[in-house]
């Protein structure tokens, strides 16, 4: 679902889009995605972009839910993943990797649990950052460039580092 | 994938790989930049096993670079920078935008680095570059490496290790360890 006022720079972003849900990606008013953004979305995945959300080239790996709030700013080469796509156990992973080359699309799509990601409104994520499965980033917060976010971030907080740590609070 | 080959074919979607590249049965290489920076003059410089998926991978091998990749590996837009030797086992996953390098690229000493800058410049034709630190990288079987991770020179990653997204790995990783961070630290173990 794409609002009339949304902007999609390139359909290349949907090369790996496989969701069968209605509204597998939903663009809000004035939301935009630019070249380099990739919706790597599995059959039961759903990505929502809030009003005025701006995604400037993120890899969104989604098998369940990645929600990006209103006015969120997502920089280039950011990874937002709600799933690892392969089992953690090496023996189980081997079975999946033996199946990949038998598939026409050659993608990993093991039935592993996904943990939804929520990027709340007015969040800003710097370039090359990664957000791991299950993380919620609270309203108004900032994630520094190249950070890896492994745990929830409270609202109106600056985090940075790998793993990301709280730097300071922002005035709300 | 922008173009696919028949499921049992092996090779590159954008033409014939260089003659010193061996590709196993049912292994697929995609992306027009796969061999743009492939300069190795070694015999069998790059050996890729069977049933591999090398989607958008950059095989950037210097003149003396040698790289071996096992069977059933699955790499997405990885950048492999090899001036010496990179060995990767079977059933290894490299996530999107992962970098693996076996070299420092330039010397550490400031004076040598100036010489290197000159040798690398358009005016440096014929000048020899100073020696640069290189150490082989070994990634053992069943290793999983997440998106945006970086593996630096001299590192050995033990069997079944799990490298979290965005990690920067500067030291050896024990088998079945789970690591995260910059620099990467062991945060747990695969049960």
> What is the residue-mean pLDDT of chain A, rounded to a whole number?
96
Assign a percent range to the helix content of chain A: under 10%
What name does the CATH topology of chain A carry? UDP N-Acetylglucosamine Acyltransferase, domain 1
CATH superfamily of chain B: Hexapeptide repeat proteins
What oligomerization state is this entry in? heterodimer
- Largest protein interface? A-B, 33 and 37 residues
User: Domains counted in the coordinates of chain B: how many?
Assistant: 1
Which strand-content bin applies to the residues of chain B?
25-35%
Question: What is the N-to-C order of secondary-structure elements of chain B (H for helix, E for strand)?
Answer: EEEEEEEEEEEEHEEEEEEEE
Roughly what fraction of the amino acids of chain A lie in strands? 25-35%
**Low-confidence region ranges of chain B:** 1-7
Please name the CATH topology of chain B: UDP N-Acetylglucosamine Acyltransferase, domain 1
The whole-angstrom Rg of chain B is 17 Å
Number of domains of chain A: 1
The helix/strand series of chain A, from N terminus to C terminus, equals: EEEEEEEEEEHEEEEEEEE
Tally of helical runs of chain A: 1
Major sheet attributes of chain B: 9 strands, mixed
* Physical arrangement of strands within the biggest beta sheet of chain B: 1-3-5-8-11-14-17-19-20
Instruction: Please provide the count of β strands of chain B.
Output: 20
What secondary-structure arrangement, pairings included, does this model have?
The complex is a heterodimer of chains A (172) and B (191).
Chain A: E1 7-8, E2 25-27, E3 32-33, E4 38-41, E5 46-49, E6 54-55, E7 58-62, E8 65-68, E9 73-74, E10 78-81, H1 90-99, E11 117-119, E12 124-125, E13 130-131, E14 136-137, E15 142-143, E16 148-149, E17 157-160, E18 165-169
Chain B: E1 11-12, E2 21-23, E3 28-30, E4 46-48, E5 53-55, E6 58-61, E7 66-69, E8 74-76, E9 79-82, E10 85-88, E11 93-94, E12 99-101, H1 110-120, E13 137-139, E14 144-145, E15 150-151, E16 156-157, E17 162-163, E18 168-169, E19 177-180, E20 185-189
Parallel strand pairs in B: 1-3, 2-4, 3-5, 4-7, 5-8, 6-9, 7-10, 8-11, 9-12, 10-13, 11-14, 12-15, 13-16, 14-17, 15-18, 17-19
Antiparallel strand pairs in B: 19-20
């Amino acid at each position: 679902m794409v609002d009339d006022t949304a902007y999609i720079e390139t359909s290349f972003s949907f090369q790996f889009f496989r969701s069968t849900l209605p509204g597998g990606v939903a663009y809000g008013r004035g939301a935009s995605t630019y070249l380099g953004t990739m919706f790597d979305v599995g059959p039961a995945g759903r990505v929502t972009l809030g009003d005025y959300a701006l995604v400037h080239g993120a890899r969104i790996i989604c098998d369940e839910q990645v929600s990006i709030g209103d006015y969120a700013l997502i920089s280039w080469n950011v990874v937002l993943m709600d799933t690892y796509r392969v089992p953690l156990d090496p023996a189980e992973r081997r079975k999946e990797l033996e199946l990949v080359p038998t598939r026409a699309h050659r993608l990993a799509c093991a039935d592993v649990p996904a943990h939804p990601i929520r990027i709340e409104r007015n969040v800003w994520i710097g370039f090359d950052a990664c957000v791991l499965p299950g993380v919620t980033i609270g309203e108004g917060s900032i994630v520094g460039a190249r950070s890896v976010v492994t745990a929830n971030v409270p609202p109106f907080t600056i985090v940075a580092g790998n793993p990301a740590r709280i730097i300071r609070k922002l005035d709300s | 994938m922008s173009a696919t080959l028949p499921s049992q074919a092996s090779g590159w979607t954008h033409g014939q790989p260089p003659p010193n590249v061996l590709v196993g049965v049912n292994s697929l290489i995609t992306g027009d930049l796969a061999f743009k920076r492939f300069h190795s003059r070694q015999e069998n410089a790059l050996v890729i096993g069977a049933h591999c998926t090398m989607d958008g991978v950059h095989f950037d091998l210097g003149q003396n670079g040698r790289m071996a990749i096992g069977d059933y590996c699955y790499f997405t837009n990885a950048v492999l920078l090899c001036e010496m030797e990179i060995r990767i086992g079977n059933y290894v996953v490299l996530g999107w935008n992962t970098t693996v390098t076996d070299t420092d690229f330039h010397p550490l000493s400031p004076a040598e680095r100036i010489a290197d800058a000159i040798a690398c410049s358009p005016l440096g034709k014929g000048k020899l570059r100073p020696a640069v630190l290189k150490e082989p990288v070994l990634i053992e079987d069943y290793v999983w490496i997440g998106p945006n991770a970086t593996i630096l020179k001299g590192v050995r990653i033990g069997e079944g290790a799990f490298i979290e997204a965005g990690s920067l790995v500067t030291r050896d990783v024990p088998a079945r360890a789970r690591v995260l961070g910059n620099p990467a630290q062991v945060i747990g173990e695969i049960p």
